[in-house]
Amino acid sequence: MTKITIVAFDGTRYELDAADGSTVMENALRNSVPGIDGECGGACACATCHVYVDDEWVEKVGGPEAMEEDMLDFASDVRPSSRLSCQIKVSPALEGLVVHAPERQG
Ligand code: FES
């Protein structure tokens, strides 16, 4: 298990014990974090799992791969720290990860 935090748009912090190998999106849905929809179930085909990686974590998490980058075009208010949370796999290297949910998806 790895501890991750998802900060909802209203500032509520969801501190979660995430299974290694699961995705940030799956953990968000399992814990009903508002602002993350994950409509395609993690197939990188909907962009409704858009999050902003916390500044402290941008480098460690890394940037999107080509397919994810193409999907991010469908998200709104994309920033340099934007990622699709279904493409961020939880691992011990991400212990303490913080991501922020946008106000809304799409
Ligand atoms: S859940 Fe659809 S792109 Fe991430």
Give a summary of the structure in a few sentences.
About 15% of the residues lie in helices and about 20% in strands. The chain has helices spanning about 25-30, 60, 65-70; strands at about 1-5, 15-20, 50-55, 80-85, 95-100.
Keywords, separated by commas or semicolons:
binds FE2/S2 (inorganic) cluster; 3 helices; alpha+beta; five-stranded mixed β-sheet; Ubiquitin-like (UB roll); 106 residues; globular
* Count of domain modules: 1
Envelope shape: globular
By DSSP (H or I, 4+ residues per run), the number of helices equals 3
First-to-last CA distance: 31 Å
Stretches where pLDDT is under 50 for at least 5 consecutive residues are none
**Largest β-sheet summary:** 5 strands, mixed
What molecules are bound to this protein? FE2/S2 (inorganic) cluster
What's the CATH H-level homologous superfamily?
Beta-grasp domain
Average pLDDT taken over every residue: 97
Q: Please provide the count of β strands.
A: 5
What is the N-to-C succession of helices and strands?
A: EEHEHHEE
> What level of helicity do the residues show?
10-25%
Strand neighbour order, sheet with most strands: 2-1-5-3-4
> Could you say what the CATH topology is called?
Ubiquitin-like (UB roll)
